[in-house]
Amino acid sequence: METKENIKFYFGIITAVLAILIIAGGFILAFIRYRKRMTLQQQELFRLDAQHKKNLLLSNIESVESERMRIAKDIHDEIGSIFSTLSLSVSQLQPGSTISAEILESNHQLITMGIDGVRRIAHSIIPFELELLGLYHALEQHFDKIARLSAIEVQFNSSSNIDRIKPNAALAIYRIIQELTSNSIKYAMAKSICFSITQKEDSLKLVYTDDGVGTRIANTGLQKGIGLKNIESRVILLEGTVRFQSEPGGGFSCTIVIPQSQNTIP
């Protein structure tokens, strides 16, 4: 009798141990599958991140090359043509001949056009008002020009001393605003633009919005145009973050956060 009881007892223990082992094995198997799934997801995220950075780099290179080609074309077509005409005019003059007032005036006009062309091309490369007046007044002039030359209502608010921002960050912000306003004017058909800069203890926050037609946009970077990718590239160089939001008929917004310790003068 005791033997049967012992057998039942040991059988019960073995059954319990087996049940525990099965349950533990199930948990272990589930954990292994979970870790495997998480690993695959992380690998996919790393792949998408690497692809995104590659796209940004390619976009940046395309933008630089496009800008170089545009500058070269401007110099060749505009400046080259002016000085070719001026050279032809000068070559027709004979030694000892009298230069007429008409020829002098024509050459003077050509020289003036050449100077204006060089100034315009140089300004497109380096905005002198940014260096001379600072970021706040450069942005103010930029928005004033938009409001004056178009029917777009512009609101510009700054609660921080943005003229203390480092030159590289100031230039990046200025170019970003140029890109955003260009998109609002050319494609969004916006009637109003609002841009604000607020300074926090550890960051600088930029918020740009327009009430244009809007578009469906993905924040993965894969469905963005070159303009928005260029903006994202500039923000990444400033160690900041950027978020675009837009829906058809719902306008457009861009929020940028830049670490203040990295981009402001102490």
CATH superfamily of the largest domain: Histidine kinase-like ATPase, C-terminal domain
Give the ordered list of helices and strands: HHHHEHEEHEEH
Q: Helix count? A: 7
Strand order of the largest sheet: 1-2-3-5-4
Q: Can you tell me the CATH class of the largest domain?
A: Alpha Beta
For the record, the CATH architecture of the largest domain stands as 2-Layer Sandwich
Average residue-wise pLDDT: 77
Helix content: 55-70%
Shape: elongated
What structural class is derived from the secondary structure elements?
alpha+beta
Tally the beta strands. 5
Distance between the termini: 90 Å
Which ranges are low-confidence, i.e. pLDDT below 50, for 5 or more consecutive residues?
219-223
Give a quick account of the main beta sheet: strands, pairing sense, barrel closure.
Answer: 5 strands, mixed
The CATH topology of the largest domain: Heat Shock Protein 90
Rg for CA atoms: 32 Å
Number of domains: 2
